[in-house]
Every structure is written in C-alpha cells, then in structure tokens.
Amino acid sequence: MGRLNINNINPHVRAAEYAVRGELAVKSEELRARLNKGDTSLPFDKIVSANIGNPQQLDQKPITFFRQVLSLLEYPNLLEKEDVLINHLGYKTDVIERAKWLLKQCGSVGAYSASSGVYAIKESIAKFLEKRDGFSANPDHIYLSAGASSGVNTLLHILSESDKSGVLVPIPQYPLYTATLSVLDATCVPYYLDESKAWATDLATIRGAYDKAKADGVDVRAIVVINPGNPTGASLSEEDVRSVIDFAAKEKLVIMADEVYQTNVFIGKFHSFKGVLSKLQQENPGKYDDVELASLHSISKGMVGECGHRGGYFELVGFDAEVEAAIYKFVSIMLCAPVIAQCLVELMVNPPQPGEPSFELYDKEYNAVANGLRERANALHKAFDQMEGVECGEPQGSMYLFPSINLSQKAVEAAKSENRTPDEFYCMRLLEATGVCVIPGSGFGQKEGTLHFRTTFLAPGTEWVDRITKFHKEFMDKYR
C-alpha cells in the first residue's frame, strides 16, 4: 500500500463535486475510445459532447485573424518573409502589424510577463471596457488570468477567511463556484433563480437566502451573478442588475460578475455590472462609492471559443489597496497567465475594425458562428417543445438550454435500483442509446422535486437532436 489513499487526502477535495466532467463525461470518453478502436456494437457511430461549452471540439472554426496573428507570435521568423505571407498564404497587412506590435509589447510569448499581465494588453482591455460601457477603466486594476476560472479561483481564495465565510451563489449554477468553495472549506449560500420567469434573478429570494445564512452564523461576504446565465442562459435586465448592486451596497457584499457569455445574447441586450454601477455612482454621488465589484471575461466562449488557450481577465472596482496588493501577490504565486492567451485576449477586445484589411473575413466568420449558435438553439428548443413532459424556456443567451423533465414513478424506481437520481438515470440511458452526453440538473443544483438536464447547442447539424427526440419517446413509453 502506498502512502496516499482516498481516505487520507485533503477531505475538501474529496468532497468537491464537478459534474461537467463527472461520471457521464468519463463514460462518454470510454465510449468514444471504443468507437475509435472500431467497435461497431454500439447503437451510434459518434459521441456528441453536449456536456461542456467546448466550441472547437464541436467543430466551431477558430477565427482566421486571431490564429494568423498567433502563428506569427509563435514563430516570429515568418515575419522575415512578409511577401510570402501576403502573396501566397493570404495574410493581410493588419495581421502582420498586430503581430509586430504584440511582439514589441511582450518580447517573446515564451517568456513570463508581469504577474498581472502585459501592460499594453491591459490598456487594450481598458479601452474596450470604456467603449462598451461609456465609462473610464484603469489598466492598473485589470488582471489577466488563465481563463475566467482562474480569476474566480483567485477571488474566492481572497474572500474566504474561514469556514464561516459565505458566498451567495445562484442555483442552478456552473459548478466551478460550489466546487471551489468546497475545496476552500467556505460556505456556499444558494439563492434560487425563478424558472417560471425565464430563470430571473429575484431580489426577495436573494434577501431570504442572505437572512437565513446570517441567522445560521454565516459571514456572507459576496454575491456571484452569472450573466448571461450558465446553465440557464438567462440575461439580466438593467433593472435586475441595479437591484443586485443596490442590495450589495446595503449589505456590504462584494459582487462577482461572471460575464463570460456577454456576446452570447439572443433576447434583449447585455448590461454589464461595471456599466450599471458607474451609472448609479453618477446618479447618486457618494451612495455607491464603496461597492466592490470584480467582473470577469474570457476568450473561451462567445464567438471566439478559444477555451484550450486558457485566457481571460478580471477588473476590480472599489477594492481596498492592501487587498488588491494581496490579490497581486496571489496571482504572482502562479507567475502569470499564459502569454499567448493574453495576446488572444487582446485580439478579442480589439478585433479588426470596418475598413481594415481583415475586417470583412472577421465579420463574416464572427456572424457565421453567432447565427449558427442561434439556429441550433432554436432547433433544439423546438424539439424540446414537442417532447412529452419536457418544458424549456426559449433560448435567451450563453450556449446552453436547461429543460425540465417530468419522469414517471416507474422511471424514478428504476433510477433508485441503480442508486442514481432520476435525472442522472435519464442522462445515462440517453448517452448509452444515442452517444449524446448531457449533464443532469443535479450537477448544477435544482429546486427540490424538479428534474432538469443541461445541454449545449454547440454541436454541428441537427441530426443529433433527432436522436434525442427518438430516445425520449422510447424512454417515456418504456417507463409508463
């Protein structure tokens, strides 16, 4: 026997749950390996990974401008052959200019940068935020991170003083939050989103969760808002954003605004927490000056879909200088975010503009991804609408649908006999019958007595949607 076993490792890691890459995902990879080895005994010929927002695994094409610039950053010697790049390889002059500029800013992408990121890239992000919100942004308070997940991890580490430190987290939520709080041995304070109102954020529910936690001796310090939502896709109205900021100001809560899906909005428009907070500060001098806001963004989602590169950033507003120094120290321990990913962040926030040589292709590719997502979301929604016992609000944003399913008592009993929750049982049967991997609602949290699953609508084509419809009908008939 070795020194370590499952009972003597860090108990908080043991207790953490992360369903997006849990049992179903593992099983889908086993089935994929069998297919790759030529196994023909399965009732499907490919796995559709609808369990995770991983756009390029599901055939979303990288944006040409981004990858052309990266290729020059990775191998600067190519810049000695500009004529070949332009005349034979289809590179435009603005690609070459941007690569030269980025190389000048970071030296080599194989070298560490400053811990909080390359300063010129932080300036680009600040300009993007100013343009987006109409209010100034300070590059000194912007930190580049390895995807938004790393930023979340940093902020939750700083926030969690003890096991009594509480963070309000929306339910259903992306399990990064509950898992990280679990590892930190801090307290997750769940607040439920309102499914009957298209998963709206309801202030009375937040207040109820906050009051209950406080009564239980929890020191509630922060509120997480995922906007647009994951797994729900819900997009907050300006009214909702204002009421959350108002509540946070009254109760002295740090706001963590996870805004990685800000370009994936199908209904209404995206309202950033920074933009709305700046407006409130302008309208009510003094009243909102102490609000602490950390907002996060990433290259993993949107039309960029570069999640394997691990790039993102967070901006801090209203944080105490000594606390910010501690955040800087924490990110320094990890040295810096991947420098090539920092460059991708710069390209995301500062893409080709109308009139520039690369704009036409960039615009065409960007819109093709956006329209493809919308079409597939609507096709999937339409299919759910026709399925017995399935209810699903219309797609509002992000990359996910989170339908509720009604299963018979017979199906519930069958799940019990396998020691699974009914939604896990349904998702496992779906995977085994169709090769489509989705995640049970229990992995994100759901109201007692309700069942859901989360699916992405990233996979190309709609043939796999037909597979789900066919399976569902057979499942319902089997367990009547």
From TrEMBL:
GO molecular function, one term: transaminase activity
Keywords for the protein's UniProt record, in alphabetical order: Aminotransferase, Pyridoxal phosphate, Transferase
Domain called Aminotransferase class I/classII large: residue spans: 94-462
Listed cofactors: pyridoxal 5'-phosphate
Biological processes, Gene Ontology terms: L-alanine catabolic process
Presence of keyword Protein transport: no
Annotated transmembrane regions: none
Keyword Nuclease in record: no
Self-association and partners: Homodimer.
Similarity annotation: Belongs to the class-I pyridoxal-phosphate-dependent aminotransferase family. Alanine aminotransferase subfamily.
Protein name: Glutamate pyruvate transaminase
Species, as recorded: Hypocrea atroviridis (strain ATCC 20476 / IMI 206040)
Lineage: Eukaryota, Fungi, Dikarya, Ascomycota, Pezizomycotina
